[in-house]
Design goal:
The protein has 13 helices and 13 strands. The chain is of the alpha/beta class. It has two domains: 186 residues, Rossmann fold; 175 residues, Glycogen Phosphorylase B (Rossmann fold). The chain has a seven-stranded parallel β-sheet with strand order 3-2-1-4-5-6-7, with helices on both faces. The chain has a six-stranded parallel β-sheet with strand order 10-9-8-11-12-13, sandwiched between helices. The radius of gyration is 21 Å and the shape is globular. It starts with 7 loop residues before the first strand and ends with a helix.
Length: 373
């Protein structure tokens, strides 16, 4: 008797550039190996995160035409792709993939939608058209949310049935942050304390706020700022660092394939975003035993240890500078908060728990699809 093939999971991302949702998928796929077959579609054609996938995975990248701004044409195209691929489960990511949910409105397959947050256009509130479409086309889907804030929005704003919602916190490989890094891979920070930040240099991450906060904080204690990542805002941010007189104190590393060792060179971690939900970078900082100075957005405050929460500030550079200054001046405090953050990460943000939750969800959806076929 011929063995049944592993389930085929079709993953649709607005982009497969390196970001939180993409890194989470790559880690999951690498963990389970050939237990699943994967097909990955990047709506914008960017497949940078492909480099993070193991070479022995059963993964394909179907070429599906996407017409920007042509919703009706896209829905028809995507419906045809679903009919051809016949995946066991369709997994969509964020608002940018909603047309695939519409294409599956008369179900071809089981649908799981993951929502990780919003772009700068929704900083001040939800866009009505998006709320309506989510309400209409996600109510029969399973919707996965990594943050309590998003869970509340899905329930109260999108009005999705609570039975369809799944809260699965993000997690990281804690062991990677306990190993001693190769000294050649670190930043070798020297005597001045180093503030680190990791993320895609996009508008909603507001690294400009962090630069301005750093400029104020370093007036009382010399320090360095290291920004790990790349993106469309980099030229503007480099120009701003120069205008603020920070050229010798700020380092832009560009894209780093694995920033894990760099966390060991930071004395504290900082984030100045306008919008976040449950950022991997904060979990990674916690796993590395770092204190965090951040803006009070999404789930960042409850994510952190109780000892760290006084250093979660309002969304302005002056408040963020006060948090940075307090942590820069107190090495003992940084150590205590870092230990508390590490303990909370071990307790709540182990990626093995996250993997098992996603696997159970995909297996249940795949089994349900098999019963319907």
């Amino acid at each position: 008797m011929k063995a049944k093939s592993p389930p085929l999971i079709l993953h649709v991302f607005p982009t497969f550039a390196i970001g939180g949702a993409q890194i989470r998928f790559a880690a999951f796929a690498n963990c389970f190996g050939r237990a699943y077959r994967h097909a990955v579609i990047a709506m914008d054609g960017n497949q940078t995160c492909r480099a993070r996938l193991r070479a022995d995975l059963d993964v394909s990248f179907p070429n599906v035409l996407v017409r920007k701004g042509k919703t009706i044409a896209n829905v028809r195209t995507f419906r045809h792709a679903l009919d051809n691929l016949r995946p066991d489960v369709l997994v969509t990511s964020n608002w940018g993939s909603i047309e695939w949910a519409i294409a599956n409105a008369l179900p071809v397959t089981r649908h799981v939608h993951t929502e990780d947050g919003f772009g700068p256009e929704e900083n001040e509130g939800q866009i009505t058209r998006r709320v309506v479409l989510r309400r209409l086309f996600l109510r029969r889907s399973t919707v996965v949310l990594p943050s309590r804030t998003l869970l509340s929005i899905a329930t109260q704003v999108w009005r999705l049935p609570p039975a369809r919602l799944r809260y699965i916190p993000n997690g990281v490989d804690l062991d990677r942050f306990t190993r001693r890094p190769d000294e050649s891979a670190t930043l070798q920070p020297g005597k001045q304390p180093v503030i680190g930040s990791v993320g895609v240099l996009r508008g909603e991450k507001n690294f400009g706020r962090l630069l301005r906060a750093f400029r104020l904080a370093r007036d009382s204690l010399p320090a360095r700022l290291v920004i790990v990542g790349d993106g469309p805002e980099r030229p503007r941010l480099e120009a701003l660092a120069h205008a603020l007189g920070l050229t010798g104190s700020v380092r832009f590393t560009g894209q780093v394939s694995d920033p894990t060792p760099l966390y060991h060179s930071f004395d504290l971690f900082a984030l100045g975003s306008d919008t976040e939900q449950m950022p991997f970078s904060v979990i990674e900082a916690m796993a590395a035993g770092l204190p965090v100075a951040a803006t009070d957005v999404g789930d960042i405050r409850p994510m952190l240890s109780a000892e760290n929460r006084p250093y979660v500030s309002g969304c302005n550079h002056v408040s963020l500078a006060e948090s940075l200054r307090a942590l820069l001046h107190a090495p003992g405090l940084r150590s205590r908060i870092g230990a508390a953050n590490r303990a909370k990460a071990v307790q709540e943000y182990d990626q093995e728990k996250m993997f098992l939750s996603y696997a159970a969800l995909l297996d249940a959806s795949s089994a349900e699809q098999t019963r319907h076929d």
